[in-house]
Amino acid sequence: MRFDPETVMRPVLLAALACLAAAPAFGQGQVNVYNWSDYIDENKLKEFARTSGLKVNYTTYDSNEILDAKLRTGKSGYDLVVPTASPFFVRQLAAGLFRPLDRSKLANYRHLDPEVMAALAKLDPANAHGVPWMWGTTGIGYNVEAIRKRMPDAPLDSLRMVFDPAVVAKFRDCGVMMLDSATDVLPAALRYLGLDPDSKKPDELKRAADVIGAVRPFVRKFHSSEYINALAGGNICLAFGFSGDIFQARDRGEKAKDKQTIAYAIPKEGALMWIDVATIPKDAPNPDAAHRFLDFMLDPAVAAASSALTGYANANRAATALLDKEISGNPLIYPPAEVRARFYSITPGTAEQIRERTRLWTTAKTGR
């Protein structure tokens, strides 16, 4: 998920790894990794610690905002971090917060998908500072039976599901949640209105905020991770969230005592495509260890295992053959070209534009 300082989140389930410490530390013979929670296969982490001889201090976050604050404060102690490409990585790169990669230390670099690399190169010229890890979309997660019961002809593949008050109101009783993220929700509202989702025009952003304000009475909560378990447990029936999160909710719902059937839809109007980027902070205390860990992340088996865990597409072309067909052949995870043609991305904007977006978002979700 993932963007601006308005909080883009992932699932908050902290990994309990016996060989991993809880906080970053300086020193040799170790690597300090700061990553989204539930974002890499734990068994592979243990394998890396065992085979590399490096102690892994692995800690997690659930918001780009948290990572951004630590990086800008300086001397975070982290050797490798994974911000979302736009607008966070872009602004951090402009601020000189990352060191160039030494590709001679990345034997697995050759496995990266040229198409995803080309998209990232628009933000990081020559892909000099980061490599794409996972990517996905924002869209509609729903409880199949609960939605069908209340609205048999529900527009499941349309942004009307979350932005049309007449539609959203039908699901108030079974529960609706929406990402607490201006840079995910406001652009989607702009697209719903037929406007440029990357618009920075105050009047258009105001119209998007009004769309959100109109459905606010029917939204139980704005939160960027709670909707996973809420969907899986049958506590809500509709969410606007990250693709992989919805797939995790689906898998948990299938295993729940009261089985819940959860599905995901990419809006036909288009969806935001995000890319999370693995990169090395400029002041990383162990840059050589960071390159070793990054090369480990680029191992096709590691990327495949992590996609199996998260439900997100990875940027490792060689990993595709290692994935179960339920993932690699799923058009909601690896969409066909005609669907990807409707994807959009978001650029950072000026400090003044960010403040205005933040103000409008706060008003839209709180009514104040």
How helical, in percent, are the residues?
25-40%
User: Can you tell me the CATH architecture of the largest domain?
Assistant: 3-Layer(aba) Sandwich
Radius of gyration: 20 Å
> How do the SSEs run, as a string of H and E?
EEHEHEHHEHHHEHHEHEHEEHHEHHH
Largest sheet: 7 strands, mixed
Total number of beta strands: 11
Amount of beta strand: 5-15%
Total number of helical segments? 16
C-alpha end-to-end distance: 26 Å
CATH fold topology of the largest domain: D-Maltodextrin-Binding Protein, domain 2
- The residue-averaged pLDDT reads 90
Number of domains: 2
Category by helix and strand content: alpha/beta
Give the CATH level 1 class of the largest domain: Alpha Beta
Shape: globular
Uncertain stretches:
1-23
Throw out a few tags for this protein:
2 domains; single chain; 11 strands; 368 residues; disordered N terminus; D-Maltodextrin-Binding Protein, domain 2; alpha/beta; 4-stranded parallel β-sheet; globular; 16 helices
Itemize the secondary structure elements and their pairings.
Blueprint: E1 20-21, E2 30-36, H1 42-52, E3 55-61, H2 64-73, E4 80-81, H3 85-94, H4 114-121, E5 130-143, H5 144-150, H6 160-163, H7 165-168, E6 176-178, H8 182-192, H9 202-215, E7 221-222, H10 227-232, E8 238-242, H11 243-255, E9 262-265, E10 273-279, H12 287-297, H13 300-310, E11 313-314, H14 325-328, H15 337-340, H16 351-366
Parallel strand pairs: 1-3, 2-3, 2-4, 6-7, 6-8
Antiparallel strand pairs: 5-8, 5-9, 5-10, 5-11
